[in-house]
Amino acid sequence: MATIEDVAKLAGLSRTTVSRVINDQPYVTDEKKQRILEAMDELGYVPNSSARRLRNQRTDTIAVLLPRITNPFFANLIESMEKKASHWGYQIIVCQTHDSKKKEMDYLQLLKTKQVDGIVMTSLCNDWKAVEPYLDSGPIVLCNEYMEEMSVPMVHMDHRRAAYESTIHLIDQGCQNLSYVCGGSDTYLAQERKAGFLRALEERSLPFLEEAMMDWAIHVQDGREVFQRIQQEFPYVDGVFTGSDEVAAGVVYEAVKSGVGVPDDLAVVGFDNQMLSLLMVPALTTIEQPVEKMADRTIEVLVKQLMYPTSVKARRYIYSHKLLVRDSTLKEQLIHT
Amino acid sequence: MATIEDVAKLAGLSRTTVSRVINDQPYVTDEKKQRILEAMDELGYVPNSSARRLRNQRTDTIAVLLPRITNPFFANLIESMEKKASHWGYQIIVCQTHDSKKKEMDYLQLLKTKQVDGIVMTSLCNDWKAVEPYLDSGPIVLCNEYMEEMSVPMVHMDHRRAAYESTIHLIDQGCQNLSYVCGGSDTYLAQERKAGFLRALEERSLPFLEEAMMDWAIHVQDGREVFQRIQQEFPYVDGVFTGSDEVAAGVVYEAVKSGVGVPDDLAVVGFDNQMLSLLMVPALTTIEQPVEKMADRTIEVLVKQLMYPTSVKARRYIYSHKLLVRDSTLKEQLIHT
DNA sequence: TTGTAGGCGTTATCAC
DNA sequence: GTGATAACGCCTACAA
Hints:
The structure is a homodimer of 337-residue chains.
Chain A: H1 4-11, H2 15-22, H3 30-43, H4 49-56, E1 61-66, H5 72-87, E2 91-96, H6 101-112, E3 118-121, H7 128-131, E4 140-143, E5 154-157, H8 159-172, E6 178-181, H9 188-203, H10 220-233, E7 239-242, H11 245-257, E8 267-269, H12 275-279, E9 286-288, H13 291-307, E10 316-319, E11 322-324, H14 332-335
Parallel strand pairs in A: 1-2, 1-3, 3-4, 4-5, 5-10, 6-7, 7-8
Antiparallel strand pairs in A: 9-11
Helix pairs in contact in A: 1-2, 1-3, 5-13, 8-9, 10-11
Chain A binds a DNA duplex (16 and 16 nucleotides) through helix 2 and helix 4.
């Protein structure tokens, strides 16, 4: 492969001058510039990325950590982040943690090994104490996931409030025995949602059915199993809060198949407002997240930190959700009242 | 950040010896090895990725080009490829072309700039003539998308046959007026599907309704519009072939909403066997692709080329599909015959 | 306006 | 077994 040296030789000039042309710097005669451009063209010269990175001590790359890209919520997040990042001249690399603490740590190493300039974490498996040291190697911004501690910027919704509203809605529809279904209860975000759920119950003086709580549901398949459990073990449950549209869809699918009426016998709420939630029959009541806005803000905050490393204001950007009421919770008797 | 030099100094040894330890090479006393490990630990040393890449002339990174990660088919492909690649010590970077020729070319540049060692293309917007020169800079493997030319390895299904079978199935169900719906007809893969569709028509002596063909449908929303068009402009259409489950879902959703019976008034087939196709009411007849197998093979072929650069056998790996017949095409009268 | 030279952090080669 | 040294390709003081 041709190097800057080759171009210089062919153009009969020095590496410096060639470098100036590459980087659009002044102090090069138009004539020589032309000669150099021709030489570059002739040799098919392209600057070597590794050399540049080493020399410049920057990669113009951002790593985004997420559980799995097959989850449409995160896919959408990436979609928007990439758009915004490329606009600033940054590249994004997608890092799937699969909810593994080890993988999360491995990916954080990218910051230390200088493979990326900064990191966005959209989920958090490890204790923050384990992550914090990496801040020495570069900026980290939290998006979606959050926590109480305030050592980095955070961009997120108020999940506690969202869960609270969903739950109140279920109760308003006449549900008395609610099952709480989520995917892993170890994250702060999950705790927040649960807190919102519990607060709604408390406010309406309803008991928390601990036995009917399931914290291992992520996929559609899990949702189907959730329904089976409910039908067999907790037949008195008449409403389900779920942490994702996929899980809600699984519950609804299986319920309908079993002849259990949704929402009359069992009301179900999802989360994220995926396309799926609209297409289901009955359509799913769900929480809409301002994905694009959060993604944009996240990248903006991170890039600013990259550009002005001193401006590390670890502030919080909170975005608001929207409860979308659809057929999976709209009980008939109430429609006519 | 600490460098190898710092570690060497602290351990009272040379860079060379430290390097040996880093790379697990022989000829280092256990005692000195220990000293070095301690020094690395104390300094929090991590080898600089850019320097390594420059020195080794390899990045251990593969770029995967795809239209958009929000398409679950490609998300699944990435999921599997990543697993396989990390198994071989390779990292994957996801490159969304959004069907743009320019972006596709930009991403191919990653090969020239040595940001990646090899490339997987799962779609192809540009003429192959435009892509071919990049082979000088490193190996390229096609996965999913394919073509007649044989200058690179290709891993794919027989889309012509898949479309043919879908179409024959529609006809067998009694459909006489078929609408052909796809997303962009400029790729070879799209042409193959259309050829399969046409062949089925021909074989069964049915006319091709050119007016009822729509080649701009990618998303659910497009599918909804497709149905509106059919209802308003081509009410005689009684069967639809679509290029994706998303589009099929949109068609079915809108049809059901409009009181048009699926499949009796309008039969619909999708493509890809996404979760969505199972959850729809009625469930969608679709084509299952062996995503994981194709992904694994693709990475395997590419990595082998990276390891043994001479072994550039540009052979073709063809995988077989499966037509999954579900309610969106199973007409009632036929169930009872 | 142009060129010279040193170094970014690593590893391979060769000598000891 | 260990260490000095020369690249890898690029950029940037500094000198001319």
